[in-house]
Design brief:
This protein has helices spanning about 1-30, 45-55, 65-75, 85-90, 115-125. It has about 160 residues and is mostly helical. It has two domains: about 1-30; about 30-158, Plant lipid-transfer and hydrophobic proteins (Hydrophobic Seed Protein). The N and C termini lie far apart (about 70 Å).
Length: about 160
């Protein structure tokens, strides 16, 4: 009996430590979706090429099926809970933390005759079943801001 009374505080302490670690991991998941953490620096370079080629045709980047496979592979390497943020960085770009010398990452290509809105529509749908078919933070294959919307626009189109 004496040994079980000494074991009880240890079990409670172990449970408390485990719960603290779980809470910290859950809290940090929302902040890890930045280039250099769960999202690679300058994310989805093959997707940038695929989006431009699919939205506006060609540009000599290579055959669409090969570009799509590379893009989907890069997107699959990003954790599901960060895929929408990776696509937002792809579309809008970001300046990562790091001081005044940090260079912008991501962003769509500036190509003559290839409007950014056309590229945005393609990029916004990359996780969909008819593209890469990858789960996102929603549990489905769509980002919360939907297809063809700006990443900061959560209203449905009418």
């Amino acid at each position: 009996m004496a040994s079980s009374s000494r074991l009880r505080p240890r079990l409670l302490l172990a449970a408390a430590v485990l719960l603290s670690a779980l809470a910290a991991a859950t809290a940090s998941a929302g902040t890890s979706c930045v280039p250099g953490l769960a999202i690679p620096h300058d994310p989805l370079p093959s997707c940038r090429l695929y989006v431009a080629a699919r939205a506006c045709g060609g540009f000599g980047f290579g055959p669409l099926p090969a570009l799509r496979r590379r893009c989907c592979g890069e997107l699959e390497d990003v954790p599901a809970y960060c895929r929408c943020e990776a696509l937002r960085v792809l579309m809008d770009g970001v300046v990562p933390p790091g001081g005044p010398g940090a260079r912008p990452e991501g962003g769509l290509l500036d190509l003559p005759g290839c409007p950014r809105e056309a590229q945005r529509r393609v990029a916004a749908g990359l996780t969909a079943d008819d593209a890469c078919g990858l789960a996102t933070i929603t549990g489905g294959t769509r980002c919360p801001w939907g297809f063809g919307h700006r990443a900061d626009d959560t209203k449905a189109e009418n």
